[in-house]
Fold each of these.
Amino acid sequence: MTKVPELFGSMVFNDKVMQERLPKTTYKALKKTIENGEPLDEGVANVVANAMKDWAVELGCTHFTHWFQPMTGVTAEKHDSFIQPKGDGVIMEFSGKELIKGEPDASSFPSGGIRATFEARGYTTWDPTSPAFVKDGSLYIPTAFCSYTGEVLDKKTPLLRSMERLSAEAVRILNLLGKKDVTRVATTVGPEQEYFLVDKEMYDLREDLKLTGRTLFGAMAPKGQELEDHYFGSIKTRVAAYMRDLDEELWKLGILAKTKHNEVAPSQHELAPVFTTSNIATDHNELTMEVMKKTAEKHGLVCLLHEKPFAGVNGSGKHNNWSISTNTGENLLSPGKHPETNYQFQLFLAAIVKAVHEYQDLLRITVASAGNDHRLGANEAPPAIISMYLGDDLGALVDSIISGKEYVSHGKEKMETGVEVLADFKKDNSDRNRTSPFAFTGNKFEFRALGSSLNIACPNYMLNTMVAEELSQFYDELKDAEDLTEAVKALVKKTLTEHQNIIFNGDNYADDWVDEAERRGLLNLKSLPEALSHFLDEKNVNLFVKHKIVSKEELHARYEIDLETYSKQLNIEALTMIDIARKNITPAVSAFVRELIDAALAKKALSASISSAVEENLAAELSEKLEKFVALTDELQDAVIEAASVEENLEKAFAYRNSVFAKMEELRKVGDSMEEKTSAEYWPLPSYTDLLFGV
Ligand code: ADP
Ligand code: MG
């Protein structure tokens, strides 16, 4: 292996490459675009494009692609070669125009009805704030995607817009508070990514995993995660080799892969990068998920990114660590040594508390998906109720602000290990609360309710926009204040008092919390259809329209797409279940019953003194279960037909949730109980033991 510093970013058209390869004036112009968002002229683009092409060709590229993030949930790419006919042959060319604008056919991407399929034209536009890179022989150019008529059709554009909005509002406030040198503020994100690895041969034998990403049947293995021996456990050789390979691939792409470890469930792992600005973090997380899957193939493994591949053990999530920092290098969510007099910090904290309280529905909506609905509220992920955890220290500060009583900091206590050879160290000033959906962790917030496969652009544009809105309201309240400090203090106190109901430092898994949250008037939106019912609430539409993140029509389109995707996913799951039930499980159980009966008959024929009770009883039990199983399969089919016939998307999603999904659970229960009683030789699918302990 080459040395990591040399390997790192070797496939990225990064600042170092730009400095080496671009004329000074071009470099400066491009930097201005990247750092200050200034528009780029075509002359500059031409020079950049040519340099990019030369660099990429040296790395073996023949093609370039505009890489974008449509509403499908995966990234999209269409490759064009650099060739240009010249004389008898070709030359390799790449123009500024090609760099800046691409024209993929937009008709086959989800648009939520804002455009008809015959209006096929769509544009991709270069996002110079995320560096281009080389992968699989192509030059990848990160882009935003919109329709011919200008409607936003992707996840990236709203994120970029929200970052601009938050920056503008934060700068205004900071300037007002006297920080005149701050000209730009960026949100930063470090997403921790969970995943499962299963053996490819086992995977190939499971139609459900192949078609839906999760097991639709499967009796629990005798061992699960109860011994807590997997979390942070020593990493198996095969998995370690995979992780090593993965790190290398990610490093080449300039992705700051930092931490890796085993997670709670058997076969579950996590990777966390060092944080970076939100848009780059988004691109990097999309790439990370893709590289995870591809690298697994090389190792005879399959990487599962579904939120709930296995019932009975933890599913996979993603922790969105989020903060805001200035161009002068200040982390605005760092409380400093004296948070009690750090009014700037208090003001930003108050803005976030207010935002999370007022837009708790949006935060819930943004993490809603068919997959993630299995986790939220299942005592393994934060509940569907959105609340915030501030920790002891900050919690005490907020209490003191609200009550007007003096604040006593616990400060950083010294931790005595009690062993001479071990150094004593300072404890963090807040313990962790793993059950909270939105937790303060020292100098950032950790939004923990995300599903593992989610594109983080969505939660982040919501977060950025709602905080921008609160800051804008704060600015209006403060701008004419005579005594600014007193005004800030009063505003912080008023805001925290009004919104303290969103703060909860207790155990989010406790049953009491559900009742307590209800008393506090917090929402408990258990499934995607329930959550989505709030998406188009007036306050939400106003928020996005006011900040020009998406228009009312675009928001509506997103709502339709989310609902459609949900119904389609449940439809596929139900059909897959029916397929497996009819073609695999029913014949297998029937054959096993037949063998039992044959054995019983043979015993009887041989001698009346040999008992055939075991075979007979088991045959009877399985026959009874099988009859129920077949009936439930038919009922599931009826439920699917009925749900599919519903026209309106929200109503349809509810039909899938309330009748199809409910029936699937019933069917699975009977199926799994048959698996427990059926010979492994006959059972047609690899077991949970094979899948969870097979690597
Ligand atoms: P844990 O699992 O204990 O929560 P990790 O170290 O695995 O912590 O992950 C913490 C994540 O938070 C990392 O990705 C880290 O880079 C990120 N992070 C740290 N500081 C910031 C910040 N200011 N803004 C955004 N993310 C941050
Ligand atoms: Mg974490």
Amino acid sequence: MSEEEDLDLRELPDDELVEQMHDDLYDGLKDEVEEGTQILLERGWTPYKVLTEALVEGMRIVGVDFRDGILFVPEVLMSANAMKAGMTILRPLLAETGAQKVGTMVIGTVKGDIHDIGKNLVSMMMEGAGFDVIDIGINNPVENYLEALEEHKPDLLGMSALLTTTMPYMKVVIDALKENGIRDDYAVLVGGAPLNEEFSEAIGADAYCRDAAVAVETAKEFMARKHNKAGAAG
Ligand code: B1M
């Protein structure tokens, strides 16, 4: 038996367990990442702390080696699957806040882009904060956004892009909203690793969200503003 197989995750103190989870995520070991997630929860870690310190940080490390050509697509896919397995455990816990429904958001990754971990994380955190989230998935052409907006009449539209080649597509969607005369019906929030404030402003979005926590805060601010406006008008 190898040393890896001998390792009992339950025997590790928190800091070593988290480090081991980063390694397991790196190696795409889904079962181990699931087990580590469970153990940290049993030890009283909040779902948010497990998410950020064990999973998101692990994926950050994967990203660095992917960029540097040490890891390749098939390996990173395994890491992504392991990360998603951990997120599946955390999702219902993050949504269990009992918060009142505060608004609705349609969210999707733009056309040409299949990255969905960040978007899923934003969805989870938004649900946890009391938003109804309609997730239209990945690789969305403008028609999908328009259909979802028409069908669900949300307060907010969220778009995610992880590639410098796909982020300009967000402007295509915003321009389509303008052409259809519905731009002002929604607050458009954008996010994804290659974006920044400047880009968000340049394409006419309402806000750039650096991470999922910022997305939640920004969404809440927009809802408060919307209610104040409605109050003032009525
Ligand atoms: Co991709 N990939 N990838 N990849 N991948 C990146 C993005 C890259 C930066 C890696 C690198 O080189 N360092 C690079 C992009 C370079 C660039 O454009 N400048 C890259 C590349 C090149 C590619 C391919 C082209 C590789 C290839 O085929 N040669 C290919 C493209 C496929 C395509 O989309 N057409 C590709 C494929 C893949 C996998 C399929 C293997 C896998 C995706 C699996 C999946 O998502 N199901 C993958 C992964 C996992 C990554 C990295 C390693 C990790 C992304 C991630 O999940 N991060 C990534 C490296 C990196 O980002 N540093 C990389 C964790 C996640 C929690 O963070 O997504 O940033 P993030 O989301 C954050 C915030 O950005 C924000 O909140 C989130 C939570 O805090 N946010 C939002 C995101 N969306 C939001 C929406 C909002 C608000 C906030 O709306 C309101």
